[in-house]
Amino acid sequence: MLIKIINAVLAVLGGVGGAILIFFVLNKLAEVLPGKWEDRVKPYLFLLPAFLAIALYLVYPTVQTVLYSFANSTSTAFVGFSNYGDLLTSKDFQSTLFNTLLWIIVVPTGTIVLGLLIATLADRLRPRGEKTAKTLIFLPMAIGAVGAGAIWRFVYASNPPGQKQIGLLNGVVTGFGGDPVNWLQLSTGRVNSFLLMVMLLWAQAGFAMVLLSAAIKGVPTETLEAARLDGAGEGSIFFRIVVPQIRTTLITVFITVLIGVLKTFDIVYVMTNGLYNTNVVAVDFYNQLFTNQNAGYAAAIVVMLMVVIIPVMAYQIRQFRAEEAAR
Predict the structure, then answer these.
(1) Does residue 241 fall inside a structural domain?
(2) Alpha carbon of 284 to those of 87, 103, 236, 260, 273: distances in Å?
(3) How far apart are CA 68 and CA 297, in angstroms?
(4) CA 117 to chain centre
(5) What is the pLDDT of residue 327?
(6) How many domains does the chain have?
(7) What is the pTM of this model?
(8) CA 207 to CA 108: how far, in whole Å?
(9) Secondary structure of residue 54 in the 3-state scheme
(10) Could you tell me which residues are beta bridge partners of residue 78?
C-alpha cells in the first residue's frame, strides 16, 4: 500500500514538474529570439506540446485504425472492404446495430423527459427540499458503471422457483404469486436490453436535471407572468414558452447523452457481456479485438462508430457557437 502511495505521489510530482520544465525551456528558447520575434513565436511554442500530444494520441491512432480496418485479422495484409462487407451482412452484427439504435432512441429521449420532469417538480419545492431532492437524484452520477452494475444486479437477480428471491423485481413478482423471471436473459421483445437502458437513465437523469433546472430558472419571470395574465394554462406556458427558451440546453443535453450512449460499454459488459441479444457496438468491438483476436473487424467497427459520432459532435460544436453568439 505504501509503495502504491509513493508511486502515485511520484507520478503527480513527475507530471507537474515535467510540464513546468517543458514550458520553462520553451520560454527560454523564445527569449533567445530577437525583438518582436519573441512575442510572435512564444504562443506557438507554448501550443506545441498540446499539438504534439494531439498528433501522438489522437491523430496517429485514428489514421492507424482506419488502415487496420482494411487489413486482415492480424493486420498483416490488406483485404479491401472485406471487413465492412462481412460485418454489415452478418446477422449478429445487424442485431448489434439494431440494439444500438434502440439505445440511441430510448436513452437520450428518456433522459430529457426525466430530466425535465424532475427539474420542474424539484423547482416547486421549498429551497431545503429542492437541494435535498436534487442531491439524492444526482448521486448516481458519482457511481461508476461497474458499481451501478453491482447495485442493479440485486434488482434483477433471479433464483430458481422455491428459493428465496434476493432480487427486488422477483421479490415483487413472487410476492404476488408469480414465478421468478431471469430478467437479464429475457430477450423476447428485447426486454433485457430495455432493463439495461434503465440503468443508464438512472445514472444520467441527475445530469440532465441539473442543466435543465438551471435553464428553466433562467427563463424571465416577466414572460411567464404575462402569459398567466393572458389566461394561458401551466401546460401551455411550459410547452410554448419555457421549452422553446431552453431549446439550446435541451439539444446540448441530448447530444451529450447520445455520444455517451454510442460509447456505452461498461453496463452491457458487466451485466451480460452482450449475450441474450443485448450486444452493442462498443462491446462487440472489445470482443472482436480481445476475445476473437480479429483486429480487422474491431478496427472496422471503430471506424463505423467514428463516422456516426463525428457529425453529431460537429452539430454540437455548431450549437455551442450559436449559443455563444446569441449571448
Answers:
(1) yes
(2) 11, 15, 45, 16, 9
(3) 9
(4) 21
(5) 63
(6) 2
(7) 0.84
(8) 12
(9) helix
(10) 71
